[in-house]
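Sequence in, structure out.
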Amino acid sequence: MTASDRPAGLLRRRSSARTRTSNRSLLRELPVLVVVALLIALLIKTFVVQAFVIPSSSMEDTLLVHDKVLVNKLVYHFRSIHPGDIIVFNGAGTWNPAPAATSGGNLLARLYDDTLRKFFDSVGGLFGTPIGQTDYIKRVIGVPGDHVVCCNAAGDVTVNGVPLNESSYLYPGNKSDSAIDGIDPRFNVTVPSGYLWVLGDHRAISDDSRGHESYPGNGMVLEKEVIGRAFLVAWPPSQWRILSIPATFRQKGITTTGGKIAALEGGQYGPAAAGLAGAVPLTWLQRRLRLRRRRAAPKPGQTPEPGQWPQSGTDE
């Protein structure tokens, strides 16, 4: 009997059965896919790239309030921090008093804080972590060994005697020596080993290294407390752009790498590219295996040929 001779009702029932089986398979796989996707996202956020939400105007017009930026957490394992980089860092102990050690208290509350709270915060942070009370985002002006001065006779910040042309990133109307009332805009510092000197692009309202010189770090931030480099404005779409190092920081004398900075910037996209390159073949392989299983499965009414698929039970 050919397929055309079979009753139409029988074909419809078999088609309906296959549809129900496919739907049940999707419902079974969906929770697994969600969990796997969540775990992968958590790993990426923890070790590779993390999204941060800009909370203030101190980096305008480069970064606006509520912009979401992507921060590369691996790049400084492959290259050093450069003047001109926009970094997110933890200011605890240098810009802020060191957090007091907690002792005693409710055991369950401490256990929750050390486990579930951190997990829930990490999950929430997948959609963009608000920069907290001890996390900051600023532009690096001086790295270890740099002599940074504000300002020369022309009103420019100088790094190792080389004047910076800051017009490409300073907030419109600001000057290099613009500052919050009560903060001395002038400085003359040599950055010690392991520290950085950072300023905001909206210089007139930025509470940056100039406003923290009385703190334990003398205005500096620790290199080891840098979370990563902001390399992309990801949201909103109208603000989407790459955060490259301004050309003025490529002048000879500001950094020993000079023109190599542009080439090194390309390395920051390595982790994301590697992740994408790894995800594509894995997805393709998964689809191929699923298709092969479907082809090997017996169709309704079909008698399996010996060895076509594994038999259930144990071998005698």
